[in-house]
Amino acid sequence: MSEEIFVTDKTKIKSLRSLTQVVYVLYALSYFTGITAIIGIIINYIKKEEVAGTWLESHFRWQIRTFWFGLLWAAIGALTSFILIGFAILFANFCWIIYRIVKGWLNLNDNKPMIFN
């Protein structure tokens, strides 16, 4: 019986890991499509309880923070673009989001949780 539970848990983690990877892809694609990050954040919130207590929970937290802080800085950048500083903010935000997608994806690939300092 315990072996069956282990296999089921292992299968569930594998499935959730794949879903986490899909969310990283959706966030990355949002630079080309615009809408996919919204799909990604919806997935994060719908599946948040399923990853609770696993190492994937840290990736979901990382992705959710990336979305909301990225959106905040995009709004600030857009609002201040008329005084030109906004373009620097938008560029910095772009670089920060790319960094977070790449770092998260690499940690996911290595089966490591995200560590928050």
Features:
single chain; 117 residues; mainly alpha; 4 helices; disordered N terminus
What is the gist of this entry?
This protein has 117 residues and is mostly helical.
H-E order: HHHH
C-alpha Rg (nearest Å)? 16 Å
The overall number of domains is 1
Mean pLDDT: 92
Write up this protein.
The protein has 117 residues and is an all-alpha fold. The protein has one domain (2-109). It is 83% helix and 0% strand. The chain has helices at residues 2-33, 36-51, 56-79, 85-109. The N and C termini lie far apart (40 Å). The model is unreliable at 3-7 (pLDDT under 50).
List the helices and strands and how they pair.
Elements: H1 2-33, H2 36-51, H3 56-79, H4 85-109
Helix pairs in contact: 1-2, 1-3, 1-4, 2-3, 3-4
